[in-house]
Design brief:
By secondary structure, this protein is an alpha/beta fold. Helices cover 42% and strands 13% of the residues.
């Protein structure tokens, strides 16, 4: 290898190089406190594409040049999630301690597939999963693993359900007729995506109507009776704890009772709302979660970790062991320690970064009380937005918030509300999203930034009204 490449590599290990990148991040976090800063770019897709349309570099550039391009050409036109008036999608303004852990995670570059490749990360992941299982009310036989997010967690949980309902699926495929999958009409698209991946087919997903944006228990009971008359197997019932459109929670106690009566797997998609387990105020919304067979929780949502960090928990760890079938004697050697299984046998991924480090650091730094307080703050700020919307004559709140998401609407047509959102976002004064509810276009705000205050959300409402 050329000596100059080795020299460059060693130079880039120096503290001053790390400091240059770190300074970019700390300067950005400091600048985003300025409420006069643009929340997002006003550049078009084609303008940004032209900026970076250049030949593949054949030779390297100096760190100084790269830092300058990041500072001048990349950071300004990103979405600034740390800006107090960014209330867009369900992506957090991440906890600083977790941000700084990312560099260490990349430097260590542990692959959490087998213990010998990630000895400490494997131990920490087992420990963190144990803590989360305890919070959910699962017993000592429970377990789980980290995932890339809620979609993979739901896929993994329902893979475990398939192993129970269709134990020959790995070798013989899904039987005909395929089992049905039941979920609420506002369930995340991960459910129908999983049905396609598992070979069930999206046509075998039966969506239960909602009552107040939560799954209608009477309608679920009726559908279960229909399925029984058809002599069809049920793969699972999927309940939602913190839905994507409205942040609503299904009645987990009632759904859990129905699932247990009929011996049906219950998967709870708590990717968004699972952090309420740490809140003394909102934990009641998850009452009954201990009835679940599997649970998806995304720490990169309401626990405010950087992307990506998801988890899947199972009440009986052996179900997760049966979810996957693999033989890799070069990798999976087995262990005499049953309490410390190789996590690659429980995960969709093999090469997987040690995201557990940032989750462990966040729990060490803030504790469950601190993370619970952050959850409460985000919900309280959303309540302030609800009050501001209800107090303004031009706006209508579509629902009362149960978490940190609120849908509302300005007087006018669907096209008017869509255009209002686009014009407001282009203004740079704030950033919101939109969705369809009950056949109508609505504005949607998600409070994911601890810096966002009641005054900020009032200014968002006034800014929309002005436009």
């Amino acid at each position: 290898m050329p000596a100059n490449i080795i020299r460059t590599l060693e130079q880039d290990c120096a503290p001053e190089v790390a400091h240059a990148f770190l300074t970019l991040a700390t300067d950005y976090l400091a600048a985003s406190r300025d409420r006069n800063m643009r929340v997002s770019t006003d550049a078009t897709r084609s303008q940004l594409a032209r900026r970076f349309a250049e030949p593949l570099p054949a030779t390297g550039r100096s760190v100084g040049e790269i830092i300058a391009r990041l500072r001048d050409q990349v950071i300004p036109d990103c979405n600034h999630l740390y800006h107090p008036r960014y209330v867009g999608h369900q992506v957090s303004a991440p906890l600083p301690a977790a941000i700084w852990t990312e560099a260490l995670t990349a430097a260590l570059n542990q692959s959490v597939a087998v213990w010998e490749m990630s000895p400490v990360a494997t131990v920490l992941e087992h420990q963190v999963i144990r803590w989360l299982c305890d919070l959910a009310g699962f017993g000592s036989e429970s377990g789980g693993t980290l995932t890339t997010g809620g979609t993979e967690a739901t896929l993994t949980g329902l893979l475990a359900a398939r192993a129970r309902v269709c134990p020959d699926a790995w070798t013989a495929g899904v039987p005909d007729p395929a089992p049905v999958l039941l979920c609420g009409e506002h369930a995340h698209y991960a459910v129908t995506r999983t049905a396609g991946i598992l070979g069930l087919g999206m046509s075998n997903v039966r969506k239960i109507p909602s009552l107040g944006y939560s799954l209608d228990i009477a309608a679920l009971r009726k559908e279960l009776e229909t399925v029984a008359r058809e002599a069809r197997a049920v793969l699972a019932i999927v309940a939602t704890a913190g839905s994507t459109p409205t942040g609503s929670f299904d009645n987990l106690e009632a759904i859990g009772d129905l699932a247990e009566e009929r011996g049906i797997w219950l998967h709870v998609d708590a990717a968004h709302g699972g952090a309420a387990l740490m809140s003394t105020t909102h934990r009641r919304r998850l009452a009954g979660i201990e009835h679940a067979s599997s649970i998806a929780i995304d720490p990169h949502k309401m626990m405010l970790l950087p992307l990506q960090a998801g988890t899947v928990l199972v009440r009986d760890a052996s179900d997760l062991d049966h979810a996957f079938a693999q033989q890799a004697p070069y990798l999976f050697h087995g262990s005499e320690d049953d309490e410390l299984v190789d996590l690659g046998t429980r995960s969709l991924m093999c090469s997987r970064r040690a995201d557990v480090f940032k989750l462990w650091v966040a729990l060490q730094r803030y504790g469950t009380s601190g993370l619970g307080a952050l959850y409460d703050h985000l919900c309280e700020t959303t309540r302030a937005l609800y009050d501001a919307v209800c107090g303004h004559p031009e706006f209508e709140a579509i629902h009362e918030p149960t978490s940190n998401i609120l849908c509302f609407r300005h007087a006018g047509s669907d096209e008017h509300n869509r255009e209002l959102r686009e014009r407001y976002n282009r203004s740079g004064h704030g950033w919101i999203t939109t969705t369809m509810l009950d056949g109508r276009r609505v504005l949607r705000a998600t409070i994911m930034n601890p810096r966002t205050t009641a005054d900020d959300v009032r200014q968002i409402v006034e800014g929309l009204a002005t436009i």
